[in-house]
Write a structure and sequence with these properties.
This protein is α/β, with parallel strands linked by helices and 228 residues long. 28% of the residues lie in helices and 21% in strands. The termini are close together.
């Protein structure tokens, strides 16, 4: 089976109703991003940060996968599909995708502030005073700005095996995720789906830009470019 690696960003979840902080005002639900998505923000006001992610978690539990998520899952019948996502929701999994790597963490997990290897499933709110088994505060299992991306090496390894690379709904401005495209083999076909594409036809060899939202763009990609 041909190996297709799919990089997804906020644009694919936006059509399910999940807001992205990379809107025009640069705010995320009214908050400066560093207040709610940095170690410093958590140290300064842990209750604010916990509440912020509690609200995101509640929202993620009620939204549903859209046709782009479902179409990617359906491609597994014809291709070896590996999804690397910057998104922290579980919409890819709920759509049926079986190989999903979350580069920036997962909303439906918590972890210890003392021992990052202590990770727990989490569908409820996290409060100040909620402790891990080593008696340290629990926090969202999210990679915040300024923190290492522990799964980056794994993502590079997966990307380097792609026979086809598909990029959906990401600005290609968030590093290190944006650097993954540099690890594909020469002349690997790249399909870039975004209504406001931040790269153009001449940036890479073998690049096809589909300037549409994820749902329509994935449909066009499958109809016009993938033949399995």
């Amino acid at each position: 089976m041909q190996k297709i690696v799919v990089l997804t960003g906020a644009g694919i979840s936006a059509e399910s109703g999940i807001k992205t902080f990379r809107d025009a005002d640069g705010l995320w639900e009214g908050h400066d991003i560093m207040e709610v998505a940095s170690p410093q923000g958590f140290a300064n006001n842990p209750e604010l940060v916990l509440d912020f992610y509690n609200q995101r978690r509640k929202q993620s539990l009620v939204v549903k996968p859209n046709t782009a998520h479902i179409a990617l899952a359906d491609l597994e019948s014809k291709y070896n599909i590996a999804i690397i996502t910057q998104n922290v929701d579980n919409l890819h999994e709920r759509a049926g995708s079986s190989s999903v790597l979350h580069l920036h963490g997962e909303l439906l997990k918590s972890r210890s502030t003392k021992n990052s290897s202590l990770v727990y499933n989490c569908t409820k709110d996290i409060y100040l005073g909620d402790m891990c088994e080593q008696d340290s505060q629990l926090r969202p299992h999210i990679v915040w700005f300024g923190e290492d991306v522990p799964l980056l090496e794994k993502a590079i390894e997966i990307t380097s095996t792609a026979a086809v690379l598909i990029i959906i709904g990401t600005s290609m401005q968030v590093y290190p995720a944006a650097s993954l495209v540099n690890y594909i083999r020469p002349n690997t076909p790249i399909y870039f789906i975004d209504p406001k594409p931040a790269i153009n036809q001449h940036d890479f060899n073998n690049l096809t830009v589909i300037p549409e939202k994820a749902t329509l763009g994935v449909q066009l990609l499958i109809e016009n470019h993938l033949h399995g």
